Amino acid sequence: MSQSARINAVLDGVQRPGRTVEWPQKGNRPAYISEIYGQNVFDLKGLQQTLPKPVYARFIQQIKGRQSLDRATADAVAHAAKVWAMDRGATHFTHWFQPQTGTTAEKHDSFLTLKTVISNGMEETSAIDAFSGSQLLQSEPDASSFPNGGMRTTFEARGYTIWDTTSPMFLRKGPHGTSILYIPSVFISYNGEALDEKTILLRSSEVLSTAAVKLLNVLGDKETKRVYATLGTEQEFFLIDRSLYNLRPDLKITGRTLVGTVPPKHQQLEDHYFGQIPSRVLAAISEAELELYKLGVPVKTRHNEVAPNQFEIAPIFEEASVAIDHNLVLMETLHQVAHRHKLKVLFHEKPFKGVNGSGKHCNWSLSTDQGDNLLDPTLKPETNYRFLLFLVATLDGIHRHGGLLRASIASASNEHRLGANEAPPGIVSAFLGEHLTEVLDAIESKRDVRNFSMPHLQTVKVGGTVLDLKVSTLPQIARDLTDRNRTSPFAFTGNKFEFRAVGSKQSPSFPTVLCNAAVAASLTTITEALIKQKGSKPEPSIDDILTVVRTFIASSKNIRFEGNNYSDEWVVEAEKRGLPNIKSCPTAFRQLLEPVHSELLINLGIMTKDEIHSRFHILMEKYAKDLVIEGNTLRNMVMQGVLPAAFTFKKELSDLLVSQKNLGLDISTVPEMKTLKIVTTLTTSLLTAAEKLSDIIDRVNALDGNEEQGDLAGNELTVSLEEVRKASDALEIYISDKQWPYPKYTELLF
Prior knowledge:
The chain is α+β, with helices and mostly antiparallel strands. The protein folds into 3 domains: 37-139 and 160-183, no CATH class; 204-607, Creatine Kinase, Chain A, domain 2, CATH 3.30.590.10; 622-749, Up-down Bundle (Four Helix Bundle (Hemerythrin (Met), subunit A)), CATH 1.20.120. It is built from 23 helices and 23 strands. The strands form 5 sheets. Strands 12, 13, 14, 15, 16, 17, 18, 22 and 23 form a 9-stranded mixed beta sheet that branches. Strands 3, 4, 5, 8, 9, 10 and 11 form a 7-stranded mixed beta sheet that branches. A hairpin with a 2-residue loop joins β6 (112-119) and β7. 45% of the residues are buried. The model is unreliable at 455-463 (pLDDT under 50).
């Protein structure tokens, strides 16, 4: 690779004309978002309009789990879906599922079927379009070809995808003006084990609902029949020029830069956050939003993030299982649309060393089928006893099973971001804010919360205090009851908890599953305590509730932290509190096997013992493989790019020195000699580090078990990767720009 390739790539990005997409029209005006929202989704409204009333009623009962889906209903739904999809250009359908690969999977089947009839004693074959109920309900991908942690072997390949009736079918663009019908599905083995992210998510949702409804029933709520987790996923990502991306083997293969020095200016002036979105980026994001609106994805917010070329898109809250589907659709749509604009979207948690990485902030809460948010404190949280019970249940679950949450966010990529002054550390804690902390402290100390007040706070209005800005043209504004703590991994932010440690590249499913599980178990424990406390009374009294709340405030108190989670002092304090500080992925993965955590998942029926061990081995194997791939990529880049560039530069310097010596000049003190000595030393260091890296890679590959590979990769390969990078980055400073083989940070980020 030469400097000319880099220059041509930069010029291509500058000179390339922008892509324009026309916004849909409604008559003589641009369409409102509400008018195009969900037009490519076959939802319950579409089914109600196309199915006979008795068939639709049976289908609704099936969705609610009150009866199984019979063949006639399935055939009717399949026919309605086929007509709807084909009228909109669909030629194929696919079961769309979420294997444990960190992405989604699909296999396309056409609607084409051949029908043979006997006419005048002769067989005649004709082509028809057909889509049966059995095709809608079930498909059969090869289960041995996806991560399964040893539950499937090569000769035991059968697996099933099964339609998830709780998530609507949708259309996505195909080639040449066609489209494809997507059927959200779960993925299981021949024996019924979960091989995906969706199956255990749906299990956890049912468990959580059952536990929450029981508690509400004890409190006297007989109307609520279902409770579900809601989720809002703030998706961060980088967008860079695709021509430059194509010249970086590390970005293409691993998703992050394995070499490269930080440019003189990056994010230190704090001028990128919420700045004006670059026009080329805005065009790409706007086109992605247009497609997402049509797919029923409620994207709400877009803005520049902290780092150069880093951005965020955030949606409106939805039921967790649908929100996760929509997050994966959002990522795939951004990927496809970015290519149309000659851009590349990077979801890796740390694509550029030295600048902020990306997260996926998962805003989690609980809602009822009556429309109530159970984590809404309202204006008087001190007397909102239902809220207090669900709040302490959440805190108790996070306290008891923080290790599970830490395991859910562990990956080779997210490891670069956690604890790096841009994301929470490996210590799981919860932030409540000043007001709720005082409420819980008052209850714990048995102060009368029914006459609770905080003298230092002004009159409460619209959920907070009033701020007078002392400017006559500006209105008074309502301030929230608490500030936000951006360093907390699990922070309460008004009427939800924000799980900030989730990685930008990963599916939100597993973190949500484990959060659901932990809280469901605590809800059950609290319900039992409340029943015992109330005794023979039909409903618990306020004092009964406060007694139970007080117990769980005390038992979960160590998980609450209001300060700076990035500080060294917090590490010391967390250790005193007995909170684990899990720094490495292998250690985090082993939390799944700890009896206190594994028994939780097994007893709740969310995962079997085999499924837990399978996931543990998949995570360890992927971790080791990710690091080995990074090691091989870096070694190749050094051997084939960086070192040859260094040798060429050294030859140039040597030739200059020879020519000066031939002129009779003293070359011992000239800058060329000094530079040559420095470059020679750095080159030697780089080669030594690269050879050490090769040796560690060979040792990792020589091990049989993925657990042993994961440990060795985590302990030694990560260190060796950093040593090689350090040596390469030192050379980048000295080697002339025309010799350097790869696009630099300045070109990638600006």
